[in-house]
Amino acid sequence: MKFKIMTAGLLALCLGAGVVFAAGEPQAERQALMKKIGGSMGELGAIAKGQKPYDAATVKTALTTISASAKDFPNHFPAGSETGMETAASPAIWQNMDDFKAKSMKLSSDADTVLASMPADQAAVGQAMQTLGADCGTCHQAYRLKR
User: What pTM was computed for the model?
Assistant: First the structure.
């Protein structure tokens, strides 16, 4: 019985350590940032489609998250992180780092511009989504592996 408890404890410890180790990996960091951006785009999309009512606080939070995450995103692509952890990052990123950074900064800048004029209703959120979605699509076309 003690052996089973010790084995279970050791297994839990190893799994926990694996999660902590993975969290510091650049692939995990950039995946987490992309999920934040995607979640924020989802919030804006739900408002734009009328699935959720317009809420200024939600719009502001989403735009702020997109801007901050896009600014930080290029910092998580060091040499040697091209593979592993099921990354969808294309090798083209490391071959065209300046362009990749420019695309990420454009998303951040466009989110800041939209935030400065703060969409006041569902239609304005829809217009913002067109701009931000185009930024996302341009970068994904060039720098995201198809799965």
Answer: 0.82
